[in-house]
Amino acid sequence: MTGIDLSKRKFSSEITEAEPEGVIAGWVQDTRNLGGIAFIHVRDRTGITQVTALKKKLGDDVFAEITSIVRESAIVVMGEIKANAQVKSGFEMLPTEFEVLNKANAPLPLGVVDKVDADLDTRLNNRFLDLRKEEISRIFRVRRIITKEIRAFLDNAGFDEVNTPKIVAAGAEGGSTLFTLDYFGKPAYLAQSSQLYKQTLMASGFDRIYEIAPAFRAEESDTVRHIAEFISLDVEMSFVNSSEDIMNILDSLICHVLTKLDEVMGDEIRELNPDFKAPKGELRKVSYAEAKEMLAEAGKKLEGDLDTEAEKVLGQVMKDKFDEDLYFITDFPSELKIGTFYARRVDDNPDLTGYFDMDYRGQEIVSGGMREHRYDILIKQMKEADLDPDAFEFYLKTFMYGMPPHGGFGLGIERLVQMVLALPNIRECVLFPRDMYRLEP
RNA sequence: GCCCCGGUAGUGUAGUGGCCUAUCAUGGAGCCCUGUCGAGGCUCCGACGCGGAUUCAAAUUCCGCCCGGGGCGCCA
């Protein structure tokens, strides 16, 4: 039991002179002891309150006690609120009582307000301390607003949120990138995408659905844009004519989300990424063939699918030419989408698919398009992709009883956050990232 | 999976065979200071990833292992 009633606690942002007595609680960020006066900066999730301790008023012993609290200890302070123009927040607290709720050990494995930077690895090993930094927790505020606005937009557009299993018997794109696990003695996998299930729901009359859920990839991809567990927004809609219908929804969705984000915390985002701006409206569509030409002009010859360098060059071209960050790449050749067996090819030109990517400054963040809803063609494409239809029985069955034409897309939430904030590493926008080497914390 | 690079105090670094009893900053401990907010001044503390090899001598060279960083392929 503490002597100070924690239920009376106010956040730093709520401190005003209106209530002359107050209780604050948080972490001791820093102490400035000037001898006869000391300033203790107490941080909570809304900001910092300065506690001003006077030796004369508190007495030598209490003053020594309050000024010797180890940084990052959790404390609660009760005191008098005073307006003071010399303080950043405009208010300070003159303590009458305080209590260390739990002391921090010294030295800290990671400084929260130190003047030296720490490596990402060190920071992730001590993530709980890393997350106490405002500029780090800000990344997750951005992330929360993004997912909140995605839901707001899609709910409003008549989409229902669903959940599909993450323990599955087969993957959407073959077995090499699946994590295996033992499921009551049977082999099972962690879902690499909700593709098969969201299509199944199209055969179930849901019409418009979305899911925001983890996807697991056992790809041995050790890069700044890959993680083994990421959050995917999956959207699927049925009774649609073409990929245009799907791109329209995605276009409106992304513009809505980024516009709202700009409204709510645009300035804070630009402190971290000065180039952030919300797209104005309809996004540009560049066909694969056009992209190839634009790349040739820029001196990058392309054979086959866009490689990482091609994506980056194209991103720069879009920036230079149109001053645009976000754009579609459409009409991928079918030969590049063999592995994506469920992609529907253009009826009068089977060399092309209606598949598209959406790139954000040269980084792929979305991929999607019309799915193949006709059973026979699907089987054929599955075989071309070297997959065994027998392993997909539950999925294929849904195509035999009135599967409507449908399509959708998958968007990598972390990739979007990473590009909005221009973060150097995707791990920055995951609380506890999982990669080839990191399984804890 | 392939290619390149690195591991020095709690944290970030300097140091490429002897000048190393290892630099600087930050941090920690302590002292001084009644308006700090990257506070300031002074003192002290604290480190060469592990194993082997070469050498009179290894933080420094070589080999193996472990850990980390970057790029590619692939993808969201």
Characterise the protein shown here.
The chain is of the alpha+beta class and 441 residues long. It folds into 2 domains: 6-102, OB fold (Dihydrolipoamide Acetyltransferase, E2P); 134-429, Bira Bifunctional Protein, Domain 2 (BirA Bifunctional Protein, domain 2, 2-Layer Sandwich). 30% of the residues lie in helices and 27% in strands. It is built from 12 helices and 19 strands. An 8-stranded mixed sheet has the order 7-11-12-19-18-17-14-13, sandwiched between helices. Strands 2-3-4-6-5 form a 5-stranded mixed β-barrel. Helix 5 (134-156) packs across helix 12 (413-421). The longest helix is centred in the middle third of the chain and has 30 residues, at 243-272. The mean pLDDT is 90. The structure holds one RNA strand of 76 nucleotides.
Arithmetic mean of pLDDT: 90
Strand tally: 19
CATH hierarchy: architecture of the largest domain: 2-Layer Sandwich
Largest sheet: 8 strands, mixed
- Large-scale geometry: elongated
| Structural class by sheet pairing and helices | alpha+beta
Beta content comes to 25-35%
Instruction: Give the class-level CATH name of the largest domain.
Output: Alpha Beta
